[in-house]
Structures are given as structure tokens and as C-alpha cells.
Design a protein that fits this description.
about 375 residues, alpha+beta, Rossmann fold, 2 domains, 6-stranded antiparallel beta barrel, about 30% strand, disordered N terminus, binds S-adenosylmethionine
């Protein structure tokens, strides 16, 4: 058990763990360890840790945290807090109405953090891949200089998505570029020699698979910063989760056609493994209705101009991606199905759009002879009063 935690979470602590049957139980024991090799490594490093950090590193970290504009009153988790380097910045950002929780597998690191912050932060000894917190606990989860050391990165991201509130944000950061982080770990060798920050493409994929969207990465000499959001939408009590991701040739809004039907380009619908059972018999369809989330579209727009003329139209009277719930659909031709990947023609989605649903298209059910948009064809109006 981690001595550092025994006395500090007697009341009001956030740490808890789910029991085997899925219910949540407050733990008597406050230490949740699953990863011993790194734990021992970082315990050994703890006494010298702070002396290795330069003023420049502190300044970079301060800038990263301030760029996040964390709202006062936020509940924030610092994953892999180490000696609590970030804690003063996080305490300042969340203010007196906020709550800061710091997680680490290495109890010696936490002892040093404790000496710095006293009871102004809740310190928890545990592994982010089995996060000892209830669903929907945090507004912000920050993972500074820790993610490369996490063995099962997808599991860690899934846990972070679980413990974030809907709309909550993940930030994975380092006070240097990805290349510099990886070179540093390679040069240190030993336990951390293979602890690498994945390529951007892979980080996007992992975040998508864990259920995040709006993933954005900044990678420059003085910092690496990935941010991603847990979806806000909920339908009854269940959140809308992407079932996959769309790989398309369109990288920016300007490149996508007005309608997928007007394009002869192909795209790939990658369905994530947990949902692939649902693809049974899909290969028998000639065309699919593809529903996806326009992850780069504005959600504040209710009226907009269309590519067809200068008039302003309501978003519910046109197919603009900008709308309160930016859900788009296409009727796409199904060309091939292979191991959870569907090759289709006729999708206008931007690359990396979260895939929400797939349904077979039927000309008998879905085609209405003579149906029209109205303003596009003849300007007719049915509004009364
Ligand atoms: C390189 S240190 C960074 C510490 C601190 N964030 C900083 O910037 O000084 C990485 C920290 O992550 C912790 N850590 C590594 N793997 C972890 C995991 N799976 N869950 C929680 N903490 C972990 C280590 O114990 C260590 O304290």
C-alpha cells in the first residue's frame, strides 16, 4: 500500500474503483497499482527529479497550461503528476472553487508532490489504464510527460474518456516536440528506451478509437500538445459513440464535393473492432446510407448561404455541414468489405470524420419519386402564417 495516501483521503476524495459486477465502491485501500517496472524506475528517480527540471521547462509548462484556458471551478486530473510540477499552475487555473486530483504509479514521486501542495490537491497512487475514478468525474484530464510511458495507450485513452464528463477535454503535453521526447527516451535507454510518443496519425486513430473527437495536435520545438474532446451528445442516458472513422481523400472543407453523389472518389469506412459484428450481411447491399459527424463544422449556425446562390437559407432547409448537431449523411456505393473496412464511392466526408452509423439504402423504401428541396428547383414555399 502507498503510505502517502493512507491519511489524506478520509472524506470527499474522488478515488473509487468499480467492483466486479460494475457497481462503484469507495476503496478502503487507496493504492491501485498495476505497473511495477515503471513504478520502481520512477520511484528511484523521485529524489533527483526536480533538480533535473530547468526554468525554461517550467516556463514552457506554464504557457501550455495557460493556453488551455481551464475554466475556474473545473475538476482537473493530472495524470502522471510525478513530483507535482504542474500542480501550482493547475491550482491557479481552477481557482478556489475547483478541484485538482493528481495520479501517479510511483508513491515516492507523490510524497514529494504532497510536500509541495499539502491538502490543496488530492493525490492518488494508481495506474491510468485502470483509473480509480467514477465515470464522468473530470472536466479536464492533463497528461504531461507521461503518455509515452503508458504501456497500453488505447486502454489509457478509453479510461480517460470514461472518467471525463461529456464535453470534457484531454490534453497530452510535453515541454518539447515529439521528436525531442522520443530522442530523449531513446538516449536514456533501459526501462524508458522504448517509451515513445506515437506518430500524429496514430494518435488521431487512438483518440478516435477511444471515443474522442476534435483531436488536434500542435508539435513545435517548445511543445507538443494534443487536445481532444469527449462527445457532448447524449441520447437518453447513453452517449452517442462513433462506430468508426472515415478515411477520405478530402483534407479540408474546400476539397470536399458539394455532395458525395457528385464524386467518383473512393473512401474507406473503418469500423472499430467492437462494432464489427454489426456488419454481418452488409456486403449484400449495393448502396449504404452513411451517417457521420462533421467534426470541423460550426454548431452555432442556424442560417447560411449555400453554394447555389446568394440567398440565406435555414440550416434545416439545406445540407450545410454547419448545424447544431453537425450530422451528415451520404448515399454511397459499396465496392468492397474487408476486415471491418468498407470501400465506398460517393462520400463527401472530410478525412477523419467520426463515423456514426451505416444503414443499407433501398430504392424501394428511400426513394420518393418527384421529391424536391423546393427552393433549389422552383422556389416553392409551404410556410403558412
Ligand atoms: C516523466 S515523469 C513526468 C512527471 C511530471 N508530469 C513532470 O512533468 O514532471 C512520468 C510520470 O508518470 C508516471 N506514470 C508512468 N506511467 C503511468 C501510468 N500508467 N499511470 C499513472 N502514472 C504513470 C511515472 O510514475 C512518473 O512519475
Amino acid at each position: 500500500m502507498c503510505g502517502v495516501l493512507q491519511s489524506e483521503q478520509k472524506g470527499g476524495g474522488l478515488a473509487e474503483r468499480r467492483s466486479v459486477n460494475g457497481s462503484k465502491e469507495r476503496q478502503q485501500e487507496r493504492c491501485f497499482l498495476v505497473e511495477n517496472v515503471h513504478r520502481e524506475y520512477f520511484n528511484q528517480k523521485a529524489p533527483q527529479w526536480d533538480s533535473m527540471l530547468t526554468e525554461e521547462v517550467y516556463n514552457r509548462l506554464k504557457r501550455i497550461i495557460s493556453s488551455l484556458k481551464i475554466k475556474p471551478g473545473s475538476v482537473v486530473l493530472d495524470v502522471g503528476t510525478g513530483t507535482g510540477v504542474l500542480l501550482p499552475f493547475l491550482l491557479e487555473a481552477a481557482g478556489p472553487g475547483g478541484k485538482i486530483v493528481a495520479l501517479d504509479i510511483a508513491e515516492k514521486m507523490l510524497e514529494i508532490a504532497r510536500a509541495k501542495v499539502g491538502d490543496r490537491a488530492e493525490l492518488v497512487c494508481g495506474d491510468i489504464t485502470a483509473a480509480p475514478f467514477a465515470d464522468g468525474t473530470f472536466d479536464e484530464v492533463i497528461c504531461n510527460s507521461c503518455f509515452p510511458h503508458v504501456k497500453d495507450k488505447l486502454q489509457a485513452l478509453k479510461e480517460i474518456a470514461r472518467i471525463l464528463k461529456p464535453g470534457g477535454r484531454l490534453a497530452v503535453c510535453h515541454p518539447m516536440s515529439r521528436e525531442a521526447v522520443n530522442n530523449l527516451h531513446r538516449s536514456l535507454g533501459g526501462v524508458v528506451g522504448d517509451d515513445l510518443l506515437p506518430e500524429h496519425e496514430e494518435m488521431h486513430e487512438l483518440c478516435g478509437q477511444a471515443g474522442f473527437w476534435q483531436t488536434a495536435i500542435t508539435d513545435v520545438a517548445e511543445m507538443y500538445l494534443l487536445t481532444a474532446r469527449k462527445p457532448v451528445l447524449s441520447c437518453r442516458e447513453r452517449e452517442l459513440v462513433p462506430i468508426g472513422i472515415i478515411h477520405s481523400p478530402y483534407r479540408s472543407t474546400g476539397e470536399a464535393p458539394r455532395q458525395g453523389r457528385f464524386s467518383d472518389q473512393t473512401a474507406e469506412l473503418e469500423v472499430y473492432p467492437p462494432f464489427r459484428e454489426g456488419l454481418k450481411d452488409v456486403e449484400r447491399a449495393t448502396h449504404l446510407v452513411v451517417l457521420y459527424w462533421c467534426h470541423l463544422a460550426s454548431r452555432q449556425t442556424l442560417q447560411t448561404r449555400t453554394p447555389y446562390g446568394p440567398e440565406v437559407r435555414g440550416v434545416f432547409a439545406c445540407r450545410s455541414p454547419a448545424r447544431p448537431n453537425p450530422i451528415a449523411f451520404c448515399v454511397a456505393e459499396l465496392l468492397e468489405v474487408k476486415e471491418g473496412r468498407l470501400l465506398v464511392r460517393g462520400v463527401d466526408a472530410l478525412d477523419k470524420s467520426p463515423l456514426l452509423d451505416i444503414k443499407p439504402y433501398s430504392s424501394a423504401i428511400d426513394s420518393v419519386a418527384g421529391a424536391s428541396i423546393g427552393w433549389l428547383e422552383d422556389g416553392s414555399k409551404k410556410v403558412k402564417g
